[in-house]
């Protein structure tokens, strides 16, 4: 493109304002003029909906906490879980780069991180390598007044954005992470943060991406990017047309994705010649179907039983939500509905969900009942009739489960044996300050009998925390064509790239962590500094 046709110039463009801010900070902190584009009227995207934690084993925050771990062990775990579902070099790049990325972020006084417990999601299957306590780090809470004029430009949390729940003070979780990164990027003095600015295309000259076409409130602007363009715009979970095209299970209405997740960045990459992968995949979750048709993320079930529409138990109800969701994908929904399962519990928990924590607000029983989503009956037989499952099958499923609760051994699905199960049953209630009112089973802390009426049932649908298919990339997040060649100047990270986790969710914080790490690797490559990233244990300070 002729230079006279550019409306403006910069060094680096970062499209997306969630985990991609880690790359924006690295670039701006190094003195490169960086423009951050956000397509909606709020910064943060699905990162603001998240818990704000990310997985970066061997990082400085974990070292400060004295966590017994090593980057070597974490890499071996990750590679064992993911296997050949993702390129081995990309897997290695992700795990090895985490500590360096965190150290770079902590150069800013705004980005304070602390270690917190939350087990790896396959620690039961890989006990020698997985971490039973967890390798997760969290952003420190942030008083909202510290954001200044950015406060009303930050996306709300999932609960507030989808269901109108009031936001807590100070900022915590994903909102705290995004807020801290926004402050860090802005205070470098080398970055611009722009809302209502959607990436619509890229300019290609002699096979290299040299800039971006950006839709703004004042029309399309042509911005030259001397070093490169990073697409970190999220997935396409909110775009039903794209979901249908790529055979993604579930429904756009049941996603927990943020409204900007329309797949625009992925389409831009495809138009530039990029190859794609894992386009049928999501970060899955079971969801309590809400009266408004949305899905309430189930994150910490600690009671009750799940049965499918045949009245049969089919899963370890306490397993990590993505693993649970992958089992739920296989369950047929009731005709004409999104209901794939029923959560059954008894009078022990009353008319409230038997869960330690619900990321989405739970309404009154009567509101769900009026919508035909929750039911209550004095007997299991009557409950079965209300929810449309065979009464004999439901009775048999509950009786068998109750026998497991009595012995403490779930012979069918091993509930209560994994570190994650036990964490939900005994430790998570302490974190949320509800330990005194949360029942603990005996002899298995995860098992309670479902035996005393009235009995309750809640409709469960297949939800997701975003799609994970996207543009194929190399170890430095450079976008690739179908023949494996690099599209120079174009990069992708997060849910806009084909996930490095393959068809697994190895540990909490992988969605945010992969976006942050590969955004960081992308800009380091743009700046010609890839060789500064530690890529072997000799160069890493492991704990």
Topology of helices and strands:
Blueprint: E1 8-15, H1 21-29, E2 34-37, H2 45-49, E3 54-55, H3 60-64, H4 71-82, H5 88-105, E4 113-116, E5 136-139, H6 158-163, H7 173-186, E6 191-194, E7 198-205, E8 208-216, E9 219-231, H8 240-245, H9 264-271, E10 276-277, E11 282-289, E12 295-297, E13 305-307, H10 321-328, E14 339-345, H11 365-370, E15 374-377, H12 380-387, H13 391-407, H14 419-431, E16 455-467, E17 470-471, E18 478-480, E19 486-492, H15 510-526
Parallel strand pairs: 1-2, 1-9, 2-6, 9-19
Antiparallel strand pairs: 3-5, 4-5, 7-8, 8-9, 10-17, 11-12, 11-16, 13-14, 14-16, 15-16, 18-19
Describe this structure in words.
- With 543 residues, the chain is an alpha+beta fold.
- It has 15 helices and 19 strands.
- The chain has helices at 21-29, 45-49, 60-64, 71-82, 88-105, 158-163, 173-186, 240-245, 264-271, 321-328, 365-370, 380-387, 391-407, 419-431, 510-526, and strands spanning 8-15, 34-37, 54-55, 113-116, 136-139, 191-194, 198-205, 208-216, 219-231, 276-277, 282-289, 295-297, 305-307, 339-345, 374-377, 455-467, 470-471, 478-480, 486-492.
- The strands form four sheets. Strands 1, 2, 6, 7, 8, 9, 18 and 19 form an eight-stranded mixed β-sheet that branches.
- The longest helix is centred in the N-terminal third of the chain and has 18 residues, at 88-105.
């Amino acid at each position: 493109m002729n230079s006279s046709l550019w409306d403006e110039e910069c060094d680096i463009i970062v499209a997306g304002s969630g985990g991609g801010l880690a790359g924006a900070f690295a670039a701006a902190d190094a003195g490169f003029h960086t423009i951050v584009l956000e397509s909606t009227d709020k910064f943060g995207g699905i990162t603001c909906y998240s818990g704000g934690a990310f997985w970066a084993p061997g990082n400085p925050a974990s070292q400060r906490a004295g966590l017994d771990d090593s980057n070597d062990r974490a890499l071996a775990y990750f590679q064992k879980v993911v296997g050949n579902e993702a390129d081995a070099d990309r897997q290695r790049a992700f795990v090895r780069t985490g500590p360096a990325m965190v150290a770079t972020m902590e150069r800013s006084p705004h980005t304070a991180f602390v270690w917190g417990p939350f087990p790896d999601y396959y620690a039961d299957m890989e006990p020698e390598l997985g971490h039973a306590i967890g390798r997760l780090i969290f952003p420190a809470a942030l008083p909202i007044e510290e954001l200044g004029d950015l406060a009303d430009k930050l996306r709300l949390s999932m609960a507030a954005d989808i269901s109108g729940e009031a936001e807590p003070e100070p900022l915590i979780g994903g909102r705290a992470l995004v807020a801290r990164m926004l402050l860090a990027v802005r205070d470098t003095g080398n970055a611009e943060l722009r809302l209502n600015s959607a990436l619509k295309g890229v300019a290609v000259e002699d096979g290299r991406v040299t800039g971006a076409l950006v839709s703004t409130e004042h029309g399309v602007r042509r911005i030259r990017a001397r070093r490169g363009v990073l697409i970190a715009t999220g997935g396409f979970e909110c775009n039903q047309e794209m979901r249908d095209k790529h055979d993604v299970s579930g429904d756009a209405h049941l996603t927990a994705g943020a409204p900007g997740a329309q797949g625009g960045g992925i389409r831009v990459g495809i138009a530039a010649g990029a190859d794609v992968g894992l386009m049928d995949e999501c970060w899955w979750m079971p969801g309590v179907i809400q009266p408004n048709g949305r899905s309430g993320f189930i994150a910490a079930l600690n009671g009750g039983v799940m049965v499918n529409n045949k009245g049969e138990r089919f899963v370890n109800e306490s397993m990590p939500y993505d693993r649970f969701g992958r089992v739920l994908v296989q369950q047929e929904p009731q005709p004409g509905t999104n209901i794939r399962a029923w959560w059954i519990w008894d009078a022990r928990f009353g008319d409230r969900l038997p869960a330690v924590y619900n990321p989405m607000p739970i309404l009154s029983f009567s509101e769900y009942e009026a919508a035909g989503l929750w039911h209550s009956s004095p007997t299991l037989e009557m409950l079965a009739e209300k929810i449309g499952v065979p009464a004999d099958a439901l009775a048999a499923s509950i009786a068998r489960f109750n026998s497991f609760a009595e012995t403490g051994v779930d012979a069918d699905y091993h509930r209560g044996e994994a570190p994650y199960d036990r964490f939900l049953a005994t430790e998570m209630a302490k974190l949320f300050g509800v330990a005194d009112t949360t029942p603990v089973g005996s002899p298995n802390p995860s098992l309670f009998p479902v035996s005393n009426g009235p009995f309750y049932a809640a409709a469960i649908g297949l939800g997701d925390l975003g799609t994970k298919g996207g543009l194929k990339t190399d170890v430095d997040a450079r976008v690739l064509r179908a023949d494996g060649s690099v599209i120079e100047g174009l990069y992708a990270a997060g849910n806009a790239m084909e996930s490095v986790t393959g068809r697994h969710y190895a540990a909490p914080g992988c969605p945010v962590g992969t976006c942050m790490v590969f955004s960081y690797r992308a800009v380091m490559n743009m700046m010609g500094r890839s060789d500064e990233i530690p890529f072997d244990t000799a160069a890493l300070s492991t704990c």
